[in-house]
Structures are given as C-alpha cells and as structure tokens.
Amino acid sequence: MTIETEYSLSDDLALALALASDADLISLDRFRAVDLVVTTKPDRTPVTDADQAVERSIRSGIEAARPTDSILGEEYGTEGDSRRQWIIDPIDGTANFLRGVPIWGTLISLAIDGVPVVGVVSSPALGKRWWAATGHGAWAQADGEKARQIRVSAVSELSDASLSYNSITGWDDEGRLDDIVALTRQVWRSRAIGDMWSYMLVAEGAIDVVGEFDLKPYDMAALIPIITEAGGRFTSVDGVDGPWNGSALATNGLLHDFVLRQLNGV
Question: Does domain 158-264 have CATH number 3.40.190.80?
C-alpha cells in the first residue's frame, strides 16, 4: 500500500506518542480519584470526567499540529472531512477505570483513506505502552525499560493456542455462544482478559487468538497497526479487514484462517 500525504508516518507516530504522554498525565491523575464524576451515555455505557478531559486534550493537540486532519472520537464524535482521520478512544476500559482495575488505556490512531496506519496504546496504570506505524514495526515499552520490538507467536496448532474471548455475554448477545464455546474446547487455554490488553498480548506473542463483538472503530483502529506490524492479522469475526465492521478477530496470523472457519462453519 502506498501512503502519500504531506506528513511522514514517522512524524505522525511521534505526534501520537506525544499526545499519549499528555493523556497519561490526565488519566492517571483521575484514576481512583474519590471525586471522579461518572455519568451514563444514551447507549447506557459509562463515561467519566477523565474520558472527556483526555479526549479534549488529544483533540486540541491534533488541531494544533494537524489542522486540516479530521477527528473521530468516542466522546465528541466526528469533526472534519479529510482522508487523514485521527481516531481516539480516550479511555478504553472505562468500566475498569471507574472500578479501580488497572486494565485500561488510551488508544490513538491515524487512518488514511479508512486504513489505520499509526497506532498507539498507552496504559499508564499497567506501566506499559505499545505503538506501530506501517512499515516501521511494532514496539512496546514498560516504565523504566528500553523500547523493544515485538512479534506475535509462532504457534501453528489450535490445540497449542491461548485464546481470549473477552466477554462471554458479548458472544451470547450475537447468538454466537455455541461458536465460541466450541472454539474454547479446541484450544489449549482460554481466558476473558478483556479490553485492549488482550490484543497487545497477541502482538507480544503471549497469547495467540482474541475475538469479540459490539465494538466501534475507536475500539479497534489503534490496535490494527500494532497487531499487523507485529506479524499478526486483524479482521472482523466474519473475516473483513479494518475497524468498521463491529467485531474483531486478532491472531498471530498462522491461526487466522483456521479460526475463521471454526467460528463461521465454513
């Protein structure tokens, strides 16, 4: 894929990392705060004052550095109409955040012509960050350590694979409970790790398959460059590329077609 815009992907990735650093300061300051404000959105999902403050900070940074780019964010919707679109989930894992569980993170992506080409996942409560840009590899860094390039596993047999299904209710609501239960019986190990962390564990090679339903583009866009640059594959549960189809299946690549056949009965 040829990517030609007035900015290099290296520059865009640097911007995303800087925005994530600012976001981490805001979110960590509000994590486990006794005065955290929690409200319910029309879709009955929770939102905190931290979600809103983080997204405002990221939007402000993008508007200053890339004024002609468009933005899609979970809390404040879509702004602009450009082939370069920044996609933001200010706090992925809000339910964990408001309960004091440290599995949550800020997701920042740049999509060009609908294809995510830059992704940053920053999880300050876990002390970790992951990032990638197309053609630049996938990287991870823990607090106090040097950045290291990451790679998916080489597991090629489903019977040796570790699976995260993330939410059994999500599969049940889609009428796919039997499919995921059947898959859990074929793998070595299954867990519901949840949210962005399960996908980053795929990119690091710690688990091999993760899938879930009821997702929005901002839940997935930042994950895609990291998974793919680490050597994995990311589609919907039905096998469609991209973050636009409401579900996710991420694997080490070696297992992907086999898992798709198992889940879709083909």
Answer: yes
At residue 152, the pLDDT reads 98
Tell me the per-residue pLDDT of 99-112, one tens digit each, with 9 for 90 and over: 999 999 999 999 99
Phi, psi of 41, rounded to the nearest 5 degrees: -80, 170
**What are the start-end ranges of the H helices in the chain?**
9-30, 49-65, 94-99, 168-173, 177-184, 195-204, 217-220, 223-229, 256-264
Q: How far is CA 18 from the centre of its chain?
A: 18
The predicted structure's pLDDT at residue 35:
83
- Tell whether the model's pLDDT for residue 57 goes beyond 60: yes
Phi-psi region of 137 (alpha: psi -120 to 50; beta: other; left: phi over 0): left
HSE at residue 254, side-chain half, CA atoms within 13 A, is 16
Out of 3.40.50.150, 3.90.930.12, 3.30.540.10, 3.40.50.1000, which CATH number does the structure's domain 9-149 have? 3.30.540.10
Contact 9, 3 (CB under 8 A): yes
